Amino acid sequence: MIIRPQLQWFRMLLAWRGSVLPQLLPRLFLIFCIGIVAVAAHDHLLPVPLNLNTPAPFSLIGIALAVFLGFRNNASYDRWWEARKLWGQLLNDSRSLTRQALTLQVGPLPKEDIKEFIAVLGALPHALRHQLRSSDPRSDLAARLPKAQFDRVIASRYKPATLMLMLGEWVQRHAQTGAIDPMAVLAFDRNLNGISGVIGGCERIVSTPLPFAYSVMIHRTVYFFCAALPFGLVDSIGIFTPVFAVFVAYTFMAHEAIASQIEEPFGTDENDLALNTMSLFIEDAMRDLLGEPGLVLPKPQPEDYVLT
Asked: Least enclosed by CB within 10 Å: which of 160, 195, 223, 241?
């Protein structure tokens, strides 16, 4: 995720890192070349006009394409924003569970028991992050869990759900000994259900992309429109056709590229959610309630402004 101060208007024009322009340059160069071909064909090669200079076809297609691109961008941004809200809820529920483990006790619990609960809870965001990114969680979980718990979690297919089960077992164990009363168990269970909802919501986003047929239809229409546009502009603007064609193509192609990038918010692209930082922040918030030293959280440097 790009984290940087608001740029002055002229510097914003020249911003490179975090924009989709670098990946679009080869495609824009192709449109520029098509524009040159359109100018050359119009002036020298084709004695018969192509009759593409009438505004109606391009206006109709352009308006329809803008509507569909707007809908696609809204749908992709909704997925990105829902993912961010889910991770915000994970932070809130984790803080609530930590507070409850520290305060909702009939009799004082050994501090080691509370640390065990918070260690499992602190490992959960890391396990969820690795599941969403299909990466290996071993190093992160081994640093936070005792060996017996680590082996149990690694042997499971859905590691965040197994950690949730272990948290529930901790509550059950202390409820049976009378250290936690039944009303406190309900409070624990409410927040544990909230975290289960977060896990399920994230899994829903990952497993249900936007319909492929819809995405490919927009993709084809964008590139057909941008490739044909120079031949529709050449009669009216002549030698400036390649420049204006590239500008219009950048607008449409960039919208499609941004929508494609944020459609999967849990990835590692520059505009995806910074799950590494968010996982550490959740763990650090729990350690703060426990009174332990804080973690060293990554901060964006002036030369890159990127958090992963």
From this structure: 223
CA atoms lying within 13 Å on the CB side of residue 42: 23
Number of domains in the chain: 1
- The residue type at 22: P
Q: Provide the pLDDT for residue 39.
A: 86
Taking the mean position of all CA atoms in its chain, how far away is CA 36?
Answer: 38
Q: Which domain holds residue 239?
A: 9-290
Within-domain flag for 307: no
Residue 166 sits at the vertex; the CA angle it makes with 292 and 280, to the nearest 5 degrees, is 40
List beta partners, residue 306: 2
Regions of the chain with pLDDT less than 70:
1-12, 18, 43-56, 299-308
Entry pTM: 0.86
Helical (H) or strand (E) element with 220 = helix 212-237
Q: At 108, give phi and psi (nearest 5°).
A: -65, 130
Q: Is residue 114 part of a domain?
A: yes
CA 101, CA 97: separation in Å to the nearest integer? 6
